[in-house]
Amino acid sequence: MQKRTFSLAYLSSHRCTPHEAVLVAAESGYAYVGLRLWPNAPQAPQQYLIDHPQEIKETLAAMRDTGIGIFDLEIIRINESFNVHTWDALYEIGAKLGAKAILVAGDDSDESRLTDNYANLCEVIQPFGMTADLEFMPWTAVPNAASALRIIKNAGSPLGAGILVDALHFGRSNTTLEDISSISPSLLHYSQMCDAQAGTDFTHEELIHTARSARELPGDGNIDLKGLVGALPNNLPISVEVINLENEAQYSPMEWAKKCLQKCKPYF
User: Where in the sequence is the domain holding 163, given as residue range(s)?
Assistant: First the structure.
């Protein structure tokens, strides 16, 4: 059996600077980390690496010393005023770090324009060696797996296109295991794992609150993680993404990272 690759997601290590996240990942049994170098909203939490030369130096040194790689970078949001060059600095630091993917959210209710901008993004980041992984989230303009797949197909299935399956959004959107199975493995570059209470009757505010601050450890909710894992390629890298501000306060970042991975591994 091929050994599964695990990455320590930003939301699981949000208390760490980039170089601290690398060191925590190395001590906790991960092969990669994910970094949020661009906030998901103005003044929202992020990690600082762009235009921080000392942190870049320390992060590259930690990567070199530990062998830990950078898997994904966050986050690009495609809205009605999207300009692909807004994120030039993110593409450049991604190439410098050898990152594999950039997480993309779709916020433009005009799906035709969103599709065109996504195709443009895929074209622009191609020279930087990363994929553009479109994450479906039930409160966004890409609310489920079917909509993500439709956008990518209508974009012409460009090089570097991808769909990011987050267990939380699978469990809280109108997405079935058949929808997941129907995604070509060529479009799946990694998946995010956590748990929560499944269902589609949550409010907009409740969806966002859980996603950003109250996810559960795998096995502590009732999302069909076993079914989801079975519907995904068996060699797909897994980003362990569990933020729970109340529960994780009892643990150091290292202890929390270890606990997240320990709870995740039995599903693989």
Answer: 6-267
